[in-house]
Amino acid sequence: MLVGHMKPDRTLFRRAAYPGLVLLFLLMQFSLIHAGSIQVEPQGLRYPRKERGKKCGHDCMTRGQQNQSYANSDGRMWDMMILLLALSSSSFSEDKLNMCMDAKHHKKVPGPEGQLYLQCAPWRDNACCTANTSTEAHEDNSYLYNFNWNHCGAMSDECKKHFIQDTCFYECSPHLGPWIQEVDQSWRKERIFNVPLCKEDCHEWWEDCKNEFTCKSNWHTGWDWSSGINKCPADRKCRKWTEVYPTPKYMCEQIWSNSYLYTTYSKTSGRCMQLWFSGLNPNKKVAEYYINSAQQDQSFAFIMLVFLAFVQVVV
Q: So which residues are the signal peptide here (predicted)?
């Protein structure tokens, strides 16, 4: 995970708004064009009128012809709306499911990395981290972020392995798209927010670290970096882990500025992201689930837009 100053968070599914806004703009434009193509009859002149025995001529339409024209125009409008929805949903899915953050050590696009080191190895088939990054994730005070795990005495190996795994998850995962947000920072342009973690991972992390000491609840901000590595601020004393983090939920959500969201879902639920896994990456299916949920919300918004556009046309 990362350290630094955090900007207030925006909406969870940031990129979901982009296709929706484009859809709204195009829908409004199309509705205006559609409305402009309908000829409104003057009040009291519901049918073409013959004057002094003259025929109406080819410029006048019968009522049946008008109805047919309206029906054809409505059909074209619905076809366009369906096409716009399909295009926006497809773009949203492809963008979110397989991507890397715009951050300090992430690759531009995910891909195979056959030599990932130890705890980062589960991501070797499709990773956002390089082999060098995976090696440094296992080192104390590594060049990744110069972060000192031992700021309140030596951290036990049992506890430290969870922070190594956390770093591998953050650096290597290609399926964090639904939870990526923009940030205004010199060392990265994006972060993760409220990634739903499985309860087993949070509880095991807290259990293996409960005998440690730390001086801060939020490890993203507020350190003394004057020596080049993080040290406790002068006004912060080291305290027992369980005093700083009374529960697994509090630890998982607070330690990295709400990058993670504690859930009561188990690893078999398909509703939470796993820090620890072996074999095929189970987190792809979880990301798909949340992407589909976001698309359902987008579809509801689309239906409302269609309704409003229809009302605008017929009124």
A: 1-35
- 24-62 pLDDT, tens digit each: 455 555 455 444 544 444 444 444 444 444 454 555 555
The tokens for 265 are 């879902």
List Cβ neighbours of 134 (8 Å cut-off, separation of 6 or more): 113, 116, 117, 118, 120, 121, 168, 171, 172
Tokens 């650096």 map to which residue?
171
Judging by DSSP bridges, how do beta strands 260-262 and 195-197 pair with one another? parallel
How big is the CA angle at 162 (ends 157 and 164), to the nearest 5 degrees? Answer: 85
Is the CB of residue 237 less than 8 Å from the CB of residue 282? no
Cβ–Cβ under 8 Å, residues 191 and 6? yes
Q: Which residues contact 121 (CB under 8 A, 6 or more apart)?
A: 134
Tens-place pLDDT, residues 151-163: 999 999 999 999 9
Closest CA to 174 of 192, 162, 197: 192
Q: What is the pTM of this model?
A: 0.68
